[in-house]
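TASK: fixed-backbone design
INPUT:
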């Protein structure tokens, strides 16, 4: 078993993507979904499906971080950045709620710009501070559950990020 240049592990000739790489890939996919909705600023008729998928993917991504990753990262001494990420998740969750409820395209585009700025700052911190530690500090049983969730897991019905709960 050896490491490759993309942050994966090679097992019997098969590439296994690292958890950090999988999480960063999800960041890019979410950004692409938002970008597909906002791509043509002159269009008043937009297909909301890419945005709807991106919103669902972001909520699911927040869930997997809070339920699978953050406890291990917190226990490994990264409490301050984890607490900051939780606060930022709540801010994004509120933006997502507003975006889902917004029927007006112009207002939705404004909310998308807000969300894009939130994600830009948030994702950069996660990718530079937390994700480099994920594969090192996540216990193998949790990593296995996380890999399974990344493959096919769904956001539990009614789940809300920790800091957005009433």
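OUTPUT:
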């Amino acid at each position: 078993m050896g490491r490759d240049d993309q942050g994966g592990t090679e097992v019997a000739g098969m590439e296994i993507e690292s958890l950090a790489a999988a999480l960063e890939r999800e960041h890019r996919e979410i950004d692409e979904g938002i970008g597909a909705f906002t791509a043509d600023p002159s269009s008043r008729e937009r297909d909301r499906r890419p945005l709807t998928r991106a919103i669902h993917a972001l909520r699911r991504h927040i869930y997997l971080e809070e339920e699978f990753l953050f406890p291990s990262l917190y226990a490994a001494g990264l409490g301050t950045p984890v607490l900051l990420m939780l606060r930022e998740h709540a801010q994004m969750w509120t933006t997502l709620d507003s975006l889902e409820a917004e029927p007006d395209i112009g207002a939705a585009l404004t909310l998308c710009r807000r969300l894009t700025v939130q994600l830009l700052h948030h994702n950069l911190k996660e990718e530079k501070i937390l994700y480099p530690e994920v594969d090192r500090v996540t216990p193998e049983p949790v990593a296995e559950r996380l890999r399974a969730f990344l493959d096919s897991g769904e956001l539990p019905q009614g789940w809300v990020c920790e800091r957005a709960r009433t």
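COMMENT: Residues 105-137 form the longest helix (33 residues).
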